Amino acid sequence: MLQAKREEIRELLLCYLASTPREEFPKRAQVQAVANFKNAAHYDLKTVKIVAPGGEVCTVAHAALALLGRLRAFYQGFGGEIEAILDFEESKFVDAENRYAWRLRR
Question: With a threshold of 0.85, does the pTM exceed it?
Fold first, then answer.
């Protein structure tokens, strides 16, 4: 089930990204993306900060919820299965106990 959930959200994300306009990704942005990746690897996603495109500093959870909001808008009207997938992903950022790390830790 875990593998299926990861594949579902990955497919939704890739379809969304394929439909967005191409953006330049200069070296400076790539370096920032690596730093964000390292920061996001920390346990508490509600306090760890990253730099979003455009320079906004926010928590990982805030950035993820904003992306999920864009996915919701993009897939509006596609049906309940997609909504359920997005709800499942959102629940992991709203309540830390829904994350896999918490489940394994318990």
Answer: no
